[in-house]
Specification:
It is a single chain. The chain has 331 residues and is of the alpha/beta class. It has helices at 5-25, 30-41, 56-66, 82-86, 123-126, 130-135, 170-173, 187-198, 211-223, 228-239, 250-255, 262-278, 286-297, 305-309, 314-324, and strands spanning 46-49, 71-75, 87-93, 99-105, 112-116, 137-140, 143-146, 152-157, 178-181, 256-258, 302-303, 325-326, 329-330. Helix 1 packs across helix 3 and helix 10 (228-239) crosses helix 12 (262-278). The longest helix has 21 residues, at 5-25.
Length: 331
């Protein structure tokens, strides 16, 4: 189905109303709000990383309420089991006295699932999300069940250096469309947070959209055009994240262990299309690609020993790469 420019503008205005409503409740965190919305529009999952108490969980709850989506929260702990996430079959006795297996759905079967502090559970439990995130199905005892539409996993994690955390498996990290860094609030934002949370102010959130509209928006995002030269730039960017590529920069060769795969490129394109739609455009610009590159790639690259010893972050290398890359070439 094709959409007119007027429809894109109208949807952009409605999405701005969604952002404004979220902003009535969440102080600051504009970038986290934007990229979480990009992930929702692009039909993907998002990973939010930041220190405890920065409002990551509250942000996701607020978005689910404004979008009128069914919501469930899974608190990840070291003793959490995979069946606590997916559900399990239990024996029930029917009215006629016969026994039968009945499947009790786990919290994964909501439209928006908050995986809170996901890196506090063991890798075995973390991997219970893999099928749901990748295929949007869950298989229990050989029985495959489809997820609701739309379906999103929005996960929060603490920095990996904190005690009691487990690194996410690479396969699961790759399932996240983007990784969003949640910064500490500024002085002005802290003042506003105190006014809202320690006073008598009470905010009632309005439901701005519903699940049917979100599914339609996801189709509109797919219809956003990307020119061949824009796509070529995104391809060059992903290729340049590999240290063995002849078309990369010295910093990648020196500090990166491995680069991004095809999912990284898919994420850049999807996020760029979502950003274009939110801004009322039906075509992707070079600014869209450059803006979404770091959230799309930062969790797909790994620093080598030399990079870690130098105290670098993946973002440092990506910043240098974006600065040195011109459209179609590395300079």
């Amino acid at each position: 189905m094709s959409y007119t420019p007027e429809q894109y503008v109208a949807m952009s205005e409605k999405l701005q109303a969604v952002r404004d409503e979220i902003g009535r409740f969440i102080v600051g965190q504009e970038e986290a709000i934007d990229y979480t919305m990009f992930a929702v529009l692009a039909d993907g999952h998002a990973l939010l990383e930041g220190l405890p108490g920065l409002g990551k969980t509250m942000l996701i709850r607020t978005i689910s309420e404004v979008l009128d989506l069914s919501f469930s929260r899974i608190q990840f702990t070291p003793d959490l089991m995979p069946t606590d996430i997916t559900g399990t079959s239990v024996i029930e006795r029917s009215a006629d006295g016969n026994q039968r297996f009945s499947f009790q759905k786990g919290p994964i079967f909501s439209q928006m699932v908050l995986a809170d502090e996901i890196n506090r559970a063991t890798p075995k439990t973390q991997s219970a999300l893999l099928e749901a995130m990748g295929e949007k199905t869950v298989t229990v005892l050989g029985d495959t069940k489809k997820m609701a539409k739309p379906f999103f996993v929005l996960a929060t994690q603490n920095p990996i250096e904190m005690e009691g955390t487990y690194p996410l498996p690479e396969a699961q990290m790759d399932r996240f469309l983007c990784k969003i860094l949640v910064p500490t609030p500024s002085k002005i934002e802290l003042m506003e947070i105190m006014k809202r949370t320690t006073g008598t102010i009470s905010i009632e959130l309005q439901k701005i959209m519903n699940d049917t509209e979100i599914v339609e928006l996801q189709e509109m995002v797919k219809g956003v055009m990307i020119a061949d030269d824009m796509l070529s730039y995104a391809v060059d960017l992903v290729v340049a994240t590999h240290p063995d590529s002849p078309d990369t920069i010295d910093e990648v060769k020196q500090f990166i262990e491995y680069g991004s795969g095809p999912r990284g490129l898919q994420s850049i394109v999807k996020l760029a299309k979502a950003r274009a739609l939110i801004n009322g455009r039906y075509h992707v610009s070079i600014a869209d690609i450059k803006t979404v590159a770091k959230p799309a790639l930062r969790h797909r690259l790994m620093l080598n020993y030399e990079g870690e010893a130098a105290g670098l972050q993946v973002d440092d290398v990506l910043n240098t790469l974006l600065e040195k890359m011109k459209q179609g070439q590395v300079v």
